[in-house]
Amino acid sequence: MTSKKRTILLTCLVLFWISACKVEYSFTGTTLDYNVTQSFSVANFFNDSGGGPANMGQLFTEDLKDYFQRNTQLELIQNGGDLQLSGAITGYTISPQATVSNPNSNQPDRAGQMRITISVEVDYVNLDNEEENGKRTFSFFQDYDPRTTSLLQVETELVEVIFENIIQEVFTSTVANW
């Protein structure tokens, strides 16, 4: 075999090898194949926790839709998407984290930090890859100081921060596969 033929053969092999490698990358880190998976749907999440703001379920549902729309190329459809998300807010608790005492007073100890914890159960269905289907509970919390602010003053903001973190976790666990 001449050196010219070897060069042509080697070039063809390298080009074949390069074309056979399929590397998918996105700036959001998704592992979705947009040729296969083209849509997603989100069912209404209801607040089954017995606590929290009245619009909490609607807020979570809309924030979840917005996040997936911003971070994927998937089309949001009413129901029956290639990816389907459903579930409920299953926990909303407010609990003391640290106590503060006043040694010069007969007053009882009181909470120096309070914690809001929210849990959301998410059922994920991927019609294109059933091995990824599953149900999981995501939980996150935020603390606040009841000595300087009331729950009414911070609840909306804290719920939004908690939802942002839970939604990022849901996204990472479902379409980013990290």
Question: How would you characterize the overall build of this protein?
Answer:
This protein has about 180 residues and is an alpha/beta fold. It has one domain: Lipoprotein like domain (Double Stranded RNA Binding Domain, 2-Layer Sandwich). About 35% of the residues lie in helices and about 30% in strands. The protein is built from three helices and six strands, in the order αββαββββα. The protein has helices at about 5-20, 55-70, 150-175, and strands at about 40, 45, 75, 85-100, 110-125, 135-145. Strands 1, 2, 3, 4, 5 and 6 form a six-stranded mixed beta sheet that branches. Strand 5 (about 110-125) and strand 6 form a beta hairpin. The radius of gyration is 25 Å and the shape is elongated. The chain starts with a helix and ends with a helix. The model is unreliable at about 15-30 (pLDDT under 50).
CATH-defined topology? Double Stranded RNA Binding Domain
Query: What count of domains describes the coordinates?
Result: 1
Q: What percentage of amino acids are in beta strands?
A: 25-35%
State the distance separating the first and last CA atoms.
48 Å
Give the helix/strand class: alpha/beta
Categorize the overall geometry: elongated
Name the helix and strand elements from N-terminus to C-terminus, one letter apiece: HEEHEEEEH
Question: Care to count the β-strands?
Answer: 6
* Fraction of residues in helix: 25-40%
Largest sheet: 6 strands, mixed
Identify the CATH architecture. Answer: 2-Layer Sandwich
Radius of gyration: 25 Å
CATH superfamily: Lipoprotein like domain
**CATH C-level label:** Alpha Beta
- Spans where pLDDT lies below 50 across 5 or more residues: 14-28
The overall average pLDDT, rounded, is 84
Number of contiguous helices: 3
